Amino acid sequence: MRHTLDEYARNDPKILRVYSTARRIYDKENRYHHNFDQVLRDLYRALIIGTDEGSVDYSILIPSVLLHDIGFSDPSFEHVGHDVAGALLAERLLADLGYGKTAIKAISHCIRAHKGKAESPETLEAKILYDADVLEKSGLVFLILAGKIVCEFGETIDDLLKRESTDRANELKTGFYTRKAKELDGGRLKQVLALLSQIKHEIKNDRPDFEISEQDLWIEPPQKTSV
Ligand SMILES: [Fe+2]
Ligand SMILES: [Fe+2]
Q1: Contact 63, 18 (CB under 8 A)
Q2: Which of 26, 82, 193, 227 makes a 20 to 30 Å CA pair with 111?
Q3: CA of residue 68 to ligand 2 center, whole Å
Q4: Rounded to two decimals, what is the model's pTM?
Q5: Residue 75, exposed/middle/buried by CB under 10 A (0-12, 13-18, 19+)?
């Protein structure tokens, strides 16, 4: 069975407008990881999970997935988090695209709750988005994607390992909300957490060479010159 967007866009023409707006925002930002490709993967997963769940409101779910990471396009994300920044930005965009108050509130909740931090997912659509986004980190592929995240945030491997280990542990504690997501995960989230701590252990105990900086090679480092 193919999971495509055509029929949903036919039933709700606003979906196409959100799709084009979202694609334009992510493409302009051009991030290594939090880009439109990542959104499409989440969308694909959300449609698979939705089919298994039954009574899903796709006019809420699809815009929520499309807009869930637009918070990264607003500098305020560094202070309030990209979930909250994204929800506020989405509220303004959706109003401009002709969405009513009830739909905006429902979509905003999904975006705000997609990390399970600012809010916990209360509605079925919010739970599906949360699960679809956690599945992005469940699998060995995540170790490759993690390299993109390091580049995107301009951070150290140590920063990444600390944050992602904490996030994976919290996600495992929360668990998946939907049956299909649990099935797709198949224990991979737990495996990723184990691998992250294996990497941490290796760097700390056996291979500190991966963490050295210029200071480790000099007693008196040479001055930087402009040429
Ligand atoms: Fe996100
Ligand atoms: Fe995401």
Answers
A1: yes
A2: 193
A3: 6
A4: 0.95
A5: exposed
